[in-house]
């Protein structure tokens, strides 16, 4: 693939790390209003989840009938091939746009938009491959029709275990009101006289803490009597949502508050037909972020009406909230566990450990070395230039060292080693996990 060659760095010399370094970009003045609608005028970006190719369906069927390692790897190779083909098309379109828009008003914005798309596809490369493999090996996949999803309240979460289903929409004010009427549980802070504001029955409930959402799930479980209900972990939420189509329509940067959960149901759907994953309100998960003192910080997903659009991406894992508090821009949806039977192993795209990388230079070459990372089968090498914020994907190796040649005297760059696995992800493609080579080849391990 072109991406693993050194020449790829030259082709993508203008790529900015918007996806990987969103926090740094915002700190530098890249405000929500600047980025909310960054894709709304594009005519070259997908608006819907792509259809599976005939070859992919054939390999999925073959694996489901005979789940051998050989059939698994054949399917995985096809998934990688398909994804690489999309990347190649995006790269080609990027080069075409550079030529077509050179010197024209608004041309830089169009090119920058496409550059952001290509860059994000590389940053999230293995996360997407592994998420796809979890979905594609689910025996329900070929039997499920997304076109039928609107008929069901709960949608299968492919790859999370055959008993795991997700509510098609976030929980609404009207649904939450049923719980309150039956239990006498305290109402959210924005409700007046014991009920939600007029004409807001179909809006996602907000000002609900994680603890409140758990209480709702406990009530649902008791009401059902057969199935169990709980909040999703972060990986289950990502598997249910799938990748956010870049030109998808949803409530982000458009309205001054929440919209009905069905408002964009006809134009924007998740991986298997559930809706309203992106924008509107963040959604609680049970995955813990780093907390301080006695505060439990849990991950929230999907962004809200007032988020930066890049923060609405399914892969975005930076936002967390205090589990004991309710927020204007946070709601929730629930997981249904058929018959209360949890899978033997919950889906959790756990991050691999970050390798500590050392570097030894000799003339115009530098050799990067690291200890093996548990569960990693390969390592991807990135080159990162601190002064410009540019990231290049250089190579992939199954070894624990790599030699990079033809360094220029005076060049200042950093290298990042990303471990790769079949299931786990590695989200360490960021400056703090890099090793530096300075002009005089003085080395500083920053990992």
Automatic annotation (TrEMBL):
Keyword Signal on entry: yes
PANTHER family to which the protein is assigned, alphabetical: FORMYLGLYCINE-GENERATING ENZYME, SULFATASE MODIFYING FACTOR 1, 2
Keywords: Signal
Lineage of source species: Bacteria, Bacillati, Bacillota, Clostridia, Lachnospirales
A Pfam family per the record: FGE-sulfatase
SUPFAM superfamilies, alphabetized: C-type lectin-like, Fibronectin type III
Name of the protein: Sulfatase-modifying factor enzyme-like domain-containing protein
Start and end residues of each Sulfatase-modifying factor enzyme-like domain: 165-335
Keyword Signal: yes
Signal peptide: 1-27
């Amino acid at each position: 693939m072109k991406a693993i060659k050194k020449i790829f760095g030259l082709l993508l010399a203008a790529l900015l790390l918007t996806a990987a370094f969103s926090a740094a970009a915002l700190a530098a003045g890249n405000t929500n209003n600047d980025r909310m609608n960054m894709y709304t005028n594009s005519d070259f970006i997908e608006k819907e989840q792509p259809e599976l190719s005939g070859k992919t369906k054939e390999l999925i069927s073959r694996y489901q009938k005979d789940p051998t390692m050989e059939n698994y790897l054949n399917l995985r190779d096809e998934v990688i091939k398909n994804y690489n083909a999309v990347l190649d098309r995006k790269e080609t379109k990027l080069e075409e746009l550079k030529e077509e828009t050179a010197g024209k008003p608004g041309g830089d914005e169009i090119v920058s938009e496409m550059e952001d798309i290509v860059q994000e596809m590389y940053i999230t490369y293995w996360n997407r491959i592994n998420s796809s493999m979890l979905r594609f090996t689910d025996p329900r996949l070929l039997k499920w029709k997304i076109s039928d999803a609107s008929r069901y309240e709960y949608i299968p979460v492919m790859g999370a275990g055959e008993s795991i289903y997700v509510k098609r929409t976030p929980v609404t004010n009207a649904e939450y009101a049923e719980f309150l009427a039956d239990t006498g549980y305290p109402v959210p802070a924005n409700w007046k006289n014991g009920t939600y504001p007029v004409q807001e029955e179909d809006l996602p409930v907000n000002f609900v803490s994680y603890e409140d959402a758990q209480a709702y799930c406990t009530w649902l479980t008791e009401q059902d009597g057969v199935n169990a209900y709980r909040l999703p972990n972060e990986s289950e939420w990502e598997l249910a949502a799938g990748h956010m189509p870049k030109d998808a329509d949803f409530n982000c940067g458009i309205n001054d508050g929440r919209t009905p959960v069905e408002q964009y149901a006809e134009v924007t759907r998740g991986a298997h037909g559930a809706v309203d994953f992106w924008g509107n309100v963040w959604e609680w998960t049970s995955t813990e972020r780093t907390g301080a003192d006695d505060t439990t910080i849990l991950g929230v997903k999907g962004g809200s009406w007032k988020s930066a659009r890049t923060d609405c991406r399914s892969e975005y894992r930076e936002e967390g909230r205090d589990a004991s508090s309710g927020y204007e821009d946070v709601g929730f949806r629930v997981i249904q566990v058929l018959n209360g039977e949890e899978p033997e192993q919950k889906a959790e795209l756990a991050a691999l450990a970050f390798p500590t990388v050392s570097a030894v230079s000799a003339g115009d070459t530098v050799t990067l070395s690291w200890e093996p990372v548990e569960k990693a089968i390969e390592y991807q090498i990135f080159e990162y230039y601190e002064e410009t914020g540019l990231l290049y994907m250089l190579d992939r190796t199954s070894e624990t060292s790599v030699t990079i040649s033809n360094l220029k005297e005076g060049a200042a760059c950093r290298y990042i080693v990303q471990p790769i696995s079949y299931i786990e992800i590695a989200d360490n493609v960021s400056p703090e996990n890099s090793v530096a080579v300075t002009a005089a080849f003085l080395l500083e391990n920053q990992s």
